[in-house]
Amino acid sequence: MRSDGDASREPRGVTGERFAGDLFLRLANEGWLVVGSEQADHVIAELERTLDAVRAYLRRVELSRKLRDAADGITPDVDRLVVQAAFEGQVAAGTWEQALVELPKYIQAFRIAAAQR
Predict the structure, then answer these.
(1) DSSP characters for 30-64?
(2) Residue 20 lies in a domain
(3) Is 83 within a domain?
(4) What is the per-residue pLDDT across 42-52, written as a single tens digit (0 to 9) for each?
(5) Is the residue at 86 inside a domain?
(6) Using an 8 Å Cβ cutoff, are 105 and 25 in contact?
(7) For residue 51, how far is the Cα from the chain centroid?
(8) What confidence tens digit (pLDDT) does each residue in 78-92 have?
(9) Is 15 helix (H, G, I), strand (E, B) or coil?
(10) Which contacts of 100-105 are long-range, i.e. CB under 8 A and separated by 24 or more positions?
């Protein structure tokens, strides 16, 4: 539930967290988010690794969809991958795709913030 007691707003992700890429960009552009270049480089590297993992996951989900469509004679290992990807996709519906959009905003915000120092 929100702090103002309004639980009717749009649903949050599985962990209750929402993305704030636009907020980070605004804070960086307005000079409120300022970090040293070394710290920014570390954060950016971690965010880029996370973005790579999200891209890999979404490729795996797409592959599993294609495998489901061509389900004749697949091995148990491939079948397990298909089922796992389908389950994960249902649990975190939309969150992975949103991460693909939002993570680059975080990366850009930290680049801007580091440049202001």
Answers:
(1) TT-----HHHHHHHHHHHHHHHHHHHHHHHHHHHH
(2) no
(3) yes
(4) 999 999 999 99
(5) yes
(6) yes
(7) 7
(8) 777 767 767 766 666
(9) coil
(10) 100/51, 100/54, 100/55, 100/58, 101/21, 102/19, 102/20, 102/21, 103/21, 103/47, 103/50, 103/51, 103/54, 104/21, 104/51, 105/21, 105/22, 105/24, 105/25
What is the number of domains present in the chain?
A: 1
What is the rounded CA–CA span in Å between residue 43 and residue 41? Answer: 6
Convert the pLDDT of each residue in 19-65 to its tens digit.
Answer: 899 999 999 999 999 999 999 999 999 999 999 999 998 888 788 77
Give the whole-angstrom CA distance, residue 54 versus residue 37.
25
- Domain of residue 56 covers 34-115
In a domain, 2, yes or no: no
Q: Are 47 and 110 in contact (CB under 8 A)?
A: yes
